[in-house]
TrEMBL record:
<keyword id="KW-0732">Signal</keyword>
<dbReference type="GO" id="GO:0016020">
    <property type="term" value="C:membrane"/>
</dbReference>
<dbReference type="GO" id="GO:0042626">
    <property type="term" value="F:ATPase-coupled transmembrane transporter activity"/>
</dbReference>
<feature type="signal peptide">
    <location>
        <begin position="1"/>
        <end position="34"/>
    </location>
</feature>
<dbReference type="InterPro" id="IPR010067">
    <property type="entry name" value="ABC_SsuA_sub-bd"/>
</dbReference>
<dbReference type="Pfam" id="PF13379">
    <property type="entry name" value="NMT1_2"/>
</dbReference>
<protein>
    <submittedName>
        <fullName>ABC transporter substrate-binding protein</fullName>
    </submittedName>
</protein>
<dbReference type="GO" id="GO:0042597">
    <property type="term" value="C:periplasmic space"/>
</dbReference>
<comment type="similarity">
    <text>Belongs to the bacterial solute-binding protein SsuA/TauA family.</text>
</comment>
Amino acid sequence: MNPLRPRRSLRVAAVPVLLLLALAAGCAQPPSQAKPFPGGTITLGFSAWPGWFPWQVAEEEGLFRKNGVNVELKYFDSYTDSLNALATGKIDANSQTLNDTLASVAGGAKQSVVLVNDNSTGNDQIIAKPGITSLPDLKGKTVAAEQGTVDHYLLLLALRKAGLTEADVKFQPLPTDAAAAAFVAGRVDAVGVFAPFTTTALKRPGSRAIATSADFPGAIPDHLVVTRALVDGNPQAVQGLVRTWFDTLAWIKDHREEALQIMAKRAGVNVPDYETYDKGTTIFTLDQNRSAFTGDLPGRAKEISDFLVAAKLVDAPPPLDGLFAPQFVAAVQP
């Protein structure tokens, strides 16, 4: 099994439509029935994305225990499965995008963002075949991306920048791995993908990225998201998770070679390949976290909410009350 299946297999759409309907209808396990707190083991989910592999370092180096929190770290080959697990209370915390969190909340899930892991600063890309050298060249061309994902979102942002809309291209919705494969096989003219599938897509001779998340700073943030039940019932555990993250970043800085070995192994790639992803992912420092919570995040949430509604991925904008819980990063001692 390839551990680098899409981290964002429905990154923006987040919870699949059927699950959204189930949550709205009360068919899925409601947050009030999630496992009781305080105490017990906290189950933390993550999946394949460079900004989330530090959790593997935290586990192997005993940093959760150091911060007084008992964590079962659960790796998901399918990112979508991790979203569903958090939305239905099967896990207590998950690393996921703001886009997906908003979609889950729109479906009825009670979740809070407690930490900014990173922003994508180049690892999400629109890659085009030879002869397509700019965004306006996409007009009339076939472009693949996974419906509702952040790479679909990136495509729409890029088209808007070029004065185009999705109606100006032939959009082909495909899962991210399949979209990359279709592009390499010459079945589509351009593709929206994230690392490591950018590496796959660029194997098509002469292909190149004509837009990346670096062109849209802050558009694709990734977070540690927890259930409201955990925030309300065991805030000490949430604080332990957040402290662990910053301890892990410090450990990685001091033991970079060892850390790279751990993260590359979890990713299923070699260290040199893993290092190429570092440039396209900006891990947020403590100061950047604090600034984000008091600055950009609320506005970004509104923009993404508008996208979800416009793309008909949700019926109504998600409620934003309680979405952000800045008190945990605020309490971390530098």
